[in-house]
Design brief:
It comes from Bifidobacterium colobi. The longest helix is centred in the middle third of the chain and has 16 residues. By secondary structure, the protein is α/β, with parallel strands linked by helices. The protein is elongated and about 80 Å long.
Length: 337
């Protein structure tokens, strides 16, 4: 029986790494021309034959490895998502390889090349924002199943899962209305972010359904606590009557609360403040604990892993899956009894 020549055999004979040999034969990554020719010549001399798509799927299913490539620098989203993915994948006897692309497309491609060379069964691509992103080039992943997490793919044929920010915006306004607040304003981050647009759109829809208008123009800036303070000061100086403030993240909410308190404005008695993200160090360590929305990233990781396992078995779930955010009620909107 003749032993089939493997890609590792080619790499060893050419005195190169497995990842470099894979890139050279599959036309991916930045490989010098002479290196590419060396690998191709070596493969031909050894009689190496690239596997068919079906054979590659079989090999990947036997590896027991899942690649998770994160663009989240601080780990606020990636770590809960990783924990959730491991909850699901561990039961299915899969291990997770975590890498961070730092939001750099070239670094992401390099990580994916390396994971593909190691025969991962599938990939979870996790973004740091909910803005849609270009899909990974097919030539890079060689048919490996992919699920895009938090930052969806722009290709509707891909499998993506993210949060329903529009529904969160509606729920934020409805919660304030439920507390008897009718003079409501919005404090936002950068206007161009998808999360900003979706949350504002949901809030506008809820206000329209209630037959109300916002008491002040929406103020756009950045996501930092300092902007929360500045924008709230501007709101107070404008003299606009406001009894409810929807901040699009917890840092803005904390800045707003601190500014209100410095001006002798009580929270929530005079103004109810609601945020988003449920970052514990921000939402619970504020002088007034913040009512906020949790993105349920751990559950998103679990669902993404289930979607990926289904795709590995040949049953991909195409299109966008939206997950609800959970409202966490604290003292910034509801007074202690």
């Amino acid at each position: 029986m003749t032993t089939r020549v493997t890609l590792q055999d080619v790499a060893d004979a050419a005195h190169l790494s497995l990842a470099t040999a894979s890139k050279a034969l599959n036309g991916t990554g930045h490989i010098a021309a002479h290196t590419r020719r060396l690998v191709q010549t070596t493969a031909q001399e050894l009689g190496y034959q690239q596997r068919t798509a079906a054979e590659k799927r079989i090999v990947r299913q036997q590896s027991g490895l899942i690649g998770l490539v994160s663009a989240d620098l601080e780990g606020r989203f990636s770590m809960p998502a990783l924990a959730g993915a491991e909850d699901t994948l561990g039961v299915a006897n899969h291990a997770v390889l975590l890498t961070n692309s730092r939001g750099d497309p070239q670094i992401e491609r390099n990580h994916i090349d390396q994971m593909a060379a190691r025969g991962v069964d599938g990939l979870l691509i996790l973004g740091g924002e909910t803005d849609a992103r270009p899909p990974v080039k097919p030539s890079t992943v060689l048919g490996i199943p992919i699920v895009y997490v938090y930052a969806p793919s722009t290709d509707p044929a891909d499998s993506s899962i993210t949060v329903d920010n529009g529904l969160a915006g509606q729920a934020a306004i409805n919660h304030l209305l439920g507390q008897g607040r009718t003079h409501i304003a919005i404090l936002a981050g950068p206007e161009y972010y998808a999360a900003t647009k979706d949350r504002v759109k949901g809030a506008e829809q809820a206000m329209a359904e209630a037959g109300l208008r916002f008491s002040a123009p929406t103020r756009y800036g950045n996501w930092h606590e300092s902007w929360g303070r500045v924008a709230t000061n501007l709101l107070i100086e404008s003299g606009e009557q406001v009894d409810g403030l929807y901040c699009l993240n917890d840092m803005l909410a904390r800045g707003a609360i601190e500014s209100f308190l410095e001006h002798g404005i009580r929270v929530p008695e005079d103004v109810a403040v609601i945020g988003h993200d449920n970052w514990s160090v921000t939402a619970t360590e504020c002088r007034i604990p913040i009512t906020t929305f949790d993105n349920n990233m751990r559950e998103m990781g679990r669902k993404a892993a289930r979607m990926l396992l289904s795709a590995i078995k040949g049953r991909p779930q195409r299109g966008m899956t939206l997950m609800d955010c959970s409202l966490i009620i604290r003292e910034s909107t509801v007074s202690k009894r």
